[in-house]
Amino acid sequence: MGDSPAKDAASDTSWAQLWIEQQRALLEQAAQPGKAASEQVNVLASQWAELGKSYLGGLMQLAQSRGAAAGDGAAAQSKSPSAGAPGNAPGQPPGEMFDTWKAAWSNAMSQAAAPGGWTDLLNRTPPLGLFREHTEAWRAVAAARADMERLEQELAAVLRRVQSEALVLLAERVKARAGGADPVQGFRELYDLWVECSEQVFSTVAHSSAYAHLQGELGNASMRLRARMQKVIEQGLKQFDLPTRSELNSLHQQVRLLKQKLAALETGAGEPTATATAEPIAPRTKPSKAAAKRKTPAAARQSRKRTR
Question: Can you give the residue ranges of every domain in the chain?
Answer without folding.
Answer: 39-73+88-239
